[in-house]
Amino acid sequence: RVIDRKKETDISTYPPDLIRNFSIIAHIDHGKSTLADRLLELTGVISKTGKNKQVLDKLKVERERGITVKAQSASMFYEYNGKKYLMNLIDTPGHVDFSYEVSRSLAACQGTILLVDAAQGIQAQTVANFYLAFGEGLAVVPMLNKVDLPTAEPERAAQQIEGTFEIDASKILHMSAKTGLGVDAVLPSVIENMPPPLGSIDQPFKALLFDTWYDKYVGVVCLMAIKDGSIKKGDRIVSTHSKQKYEVTEVGIMHPEPSPTTSLQVGQVGYITCNMKSVSEAHVGDTFYRDKHPVEALPGFVPAKSMVFAGVFPIDADEFARLDESIQKLTLNDSSVSVHKETSAALGQGWRLGFLGTLHMDVFRQRLEEEYDASILITAPTVPYQIKYRDGTTRFIRTPADFPDIHTMQDNVESTMEPFVLATMIFPERYLGQMLELCTLHRGEIQNHVYIDEARVLLKCRLPMAEIVSDFFDKLKSKSQGFASFDYEESGYEASDLVKMEVLLNNEAVDALASVMHR
Prior knowledge:
With 519 residues, this protein is of the alpha+beta class. It folds into four domains: 16-193, Rossmann fold (3-Layer(aba) Sandwich); 206-290, Elongation Factor Tu (Ef-tu), domain 3 (Beta Barrel), CATH 2.40.30; 308-378, Elongation Factor G (Translational Gtpase), domain 3 (Alpha-Beta Plaits), CATH 3.30.70.870; 385-499, Alpha-Beta Plaits. The chain has an eight-stranded antiparallel beta sheet with strand order 11-10-16-7-8-15-12-13, covered by helices on one side. Strands 2-3-1-4-5-6 form a six-stranded mixed beta sheet, with helices on both faces. Strands 21, 22, 23, 24, 25 and 26 form a six-stranded antiparallel beta sheet that branches.
């Protein structure tokens, strides 16, 4: 990501009506990153070598796992009907754990491509992402990918889209991102069916910060969507959140590497560097304005709520300070991780980190080990419990060691509550019996099930989050032979009969081995 200091590009000739800010949302593996590669080739941003794979997936972990974790953006220049357009593609992750990244990306867009695999049809994440985009008021343009596969059933998939989302099946584009078939029609469809960004060049500067990363040469780089006015090098800007002031040292667009420009204007999406040194200064969802010209803050995003907690400890205690710095830098690139220092009698000093899900936790661990060469010990994942005491106070418990023991429970605790989620599962009809049985075994409450076509069922079920972080997903995949897709959203807390299980060594309880169980 080192910033390319080539000559600055002038993009001031692109007013909002010649700009489209859009994203591609899809279930994992439906071809989103491949389509992004084809669009970058089509517009000449990258050369057509046939070697371009996941160009926007810059993290090593993304390429290894074939998933997108971080939202990225790329600006493309495209001529259509005699006019030159600036097309800003904001790439989004597809996995359930990273839906926070999706909602951040959508806040910078006016429209989105809903990409569906013609062989697999609608999956759980397709449904979740559609409603995220719909809730943001975005124009949704559906497209069917992988129509070249022998197993593709484009007509059936188009009927599913029409039946589930009430989108006219005749308006759905058919294509193959892998072979390039039909990809030429994608950008014209985006221009025709998505609105340009709103805002005015004459209004005071206002921008939404929707992503950040750390560059060892320039410090914190902020990715912003310009909502009003313009900004250039030398301007002074202020954060609405912290009221801190900064001088802009560079502005530019991602092409797909950082490329400096003379200015950024209303409707455009680009990066700003401004001598922001500390990781904690950049708040995703923050509004920035020009010094002495305050503006009303833009609606931010709902902050990410940690649903899974784990203890992280250095294997070598002498590495604590270096690991602390690594965690700080990595959380700048992933603001949805919560960090609290903790001390364990058995494992020494460490941190209690909060994640959005177990894959999120695993990716964070892998990035710490690979990007920062860290040797860490990570404890089993737990969920946050809520304890109501008889004196009227309530306390959230992030670690089993803090959970009240049996005597405190009897004397002082009125009730214990655990987090629940509303899960959506989509699978072939022949697995309905096994899926209902699996949900019941994991303390699930079936809400309803509907047929999305003659062969596939959409099942909704409320489950304790603790069941999901153990082995629910693995069992779901094995019982459905890999055909089931799964997504969930928070569904509040509910009273539950919980107790702490302690493990004794030489008659001494070991805090690191404690766990919370349902009785």
